[in-house]
Backbone:
C-alpha cells in the first residue's frame, strides 16, 4: 500500500480522492464562492459545498481555508477526527463553536486575522456558556502557531 499523501487544491479533486485525501488546501479559493443563482449568497463565501466534500474526506489531516471571507464553518470540519492542522487565518470568523473541542488530534490552529470575540465579552447570564467559551479560548491559544519574525 502506498504511503503517498494525497493533497487536493479544489473541491472536485477532493471529491475524487475521497477517503484517500490527507490535505485539502483551499486558500483564497474560488471553489468556496456560491454559484447558485437561486441563492441569496451568490458570489459570497459558501460552506454548503465544502460541507458535502468534507463528509466524503474523513481522513483529512490538514485543512487550509485561509483568506476566503468565511463567516462560519460547517459542522463537518469538527467531525474530522484525524485533523492535525487547521488554517482559518484571515477570514471574518467572530467565534468558533464548542465543537472545536472535539478535534483531539489538532496541533495547529491558525485563526490570525479573524475578529474572534475578545476576552470580557462573555455572556455572564449563563455560567455554562461562559465556561465553555473559556475552554474554547484555551484550546485555541494552545494551538496557535508561533511565527518567527
Residues:
Amino acid at each position: 500500500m502506498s504511503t503517498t499523501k494525497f493533497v487536493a487544491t479544489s473541491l472536485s479533486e477532493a471529491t475524487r480522492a475521497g477517503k484517500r485525501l490527507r490535505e485539502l488546501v483551499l486558500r483564497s479559493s474560488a471553489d468556496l464562492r456560491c454559484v447558485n443563482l437561486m441563492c441569496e449568497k451568490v458570489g459570497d463565501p459558501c460552506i454548503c459545498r465544502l460541507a458535502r466534500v468534507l463528509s466524503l474526506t474523513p481522513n483529512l489531516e490538514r485543512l487550509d481555508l485561509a483568506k476566503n471571507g468565511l463567516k462560519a464553518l460547517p459542522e463537518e470540519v469538527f467531525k474530522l477526527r484525524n485533523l492535525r492542522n487547521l488554517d482559518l487565518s484571515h477570514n471574518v470568523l467572530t467565534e468558533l463553536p464548542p465543537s472545536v473541542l472535539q478535534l483531539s488530534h489538532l496541533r495547529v490552529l491558525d485563526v490570525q486575522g479573524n475578529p474572534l470575540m475578545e476576552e470580557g465579552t462573555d455572556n455572564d447570564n449563563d455560567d455554562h456558556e461562559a465556561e465553555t467559551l473559556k475552554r474554547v479560548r484555551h484550546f485555541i491559544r494552545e494551538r496557535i502557531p508561533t511565527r518567527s519574525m
Notes: Helices lie at 11-17, 48-56, 127-143. The mean pLDDT is 87. The two ends are 41 Å apart (CA to CA). The longest helix spans residues 127-143.
